[in-house]
Amino acid sequence: MHILSIDIGGSAIKYGILNTSGQILHKGSVINERTSLEVFMATLCSVVEVGMAKYPIKGIALSVPAIMNSQTGMILSEGSMPFLVGVNLMDELQNKYAIDVFSENDGNCAALAEVWKGVAKDCNDIAVVVIGTGVGGALVKDKLIHPGTNFMAGEFGYFINSFDFEAKAFEIWSDLGATYALTDKLSKIKGQTLTGLDVFELASNHDPVAIKEIDNFYNSNAVGMFNLQYFFDPEMIVLGGAISKRKDFVDQLESRLDTIFNKIEIAPKRPVIKVAEFGNDANLIGAVYNYLTQKGCKIYK
Questions:
Q1: Quick check: helix, strand or coil at residue 83?
Q2: SS3 for 62?
Q3: pLDDT by residue (tens digit) across 49-87?
Q4: pTM for the full predicted model
Q5: Percentage with pLDDT > 70 across the chain
Q6: Does residue 300 form part of some domain?
Q7: Domain limits for position 41
Q8: H helices within the chain, ranges in order?
């Protein structure tokens, strides 16, 4: 059986033809203009028709960059495309092409890829933390997404990471542990626009401000990982986001977890932290896994 998997992104719509084992047989991408719902739907439909022309497609799997109800297909938040709020892409494509369609949030799709074929393939319960513009992720329970009552499970960036009740000051994980938070703060201090690479280059050249802010960045993420372990008790915490690919990223977290566990001796379980295996193809693969589980198909490891 061939499934057309479509990963809707802010700048591009990527697609792939996959079999039920998660093997990508063909893939491509088109620019996502995002100027209006009509233009977007025309682009999405053109992708579907290209896929159908290449293979006998039995179903469509969607990865959507917004909070959504994956059971009904209704999109609940605007993400990078405000015109999608209240739109049901599942229904739109099912009605147009008379084919089964299932959709899921993009972060959840990335998590499902890891638990199906990736670094967490031998696990049932995992947390995925994606560090980028903010801090987000997903919770996987028994190899299925745990969405939460309001479809907000996995929005770890809202965890309070630092507080001062007397000053009524609260900072969430995204304020302190996101890559954007790090680069934005250094950019303001230095009076110039800096990338993540720039910040770490400054630190390698012994810039004391960069060194201090990177240290705070890692500290905040280590605290987040510690809290997440005791919030959900996952078998593994899987890290995503470009910064997680730094060779010393996990080592930096582990050294700070050493400090935490040395001071909180009562804590019995240290988190197992791994970097996500899949990159740009994660959402395509995870969307197919979601399709197969929603359809009740046999899952091949």
A1: helix
A2: strand
A3: 999 999 999 999 999 988 889 889 999 987 778 899 999
A4: 0.86
A5: 99
A6: no
A7: 2-112+279-295
A8: 37-54, 89-97, 106-116, 173-177, 179-190, 196-204, 208-232, 249-263, 282-295
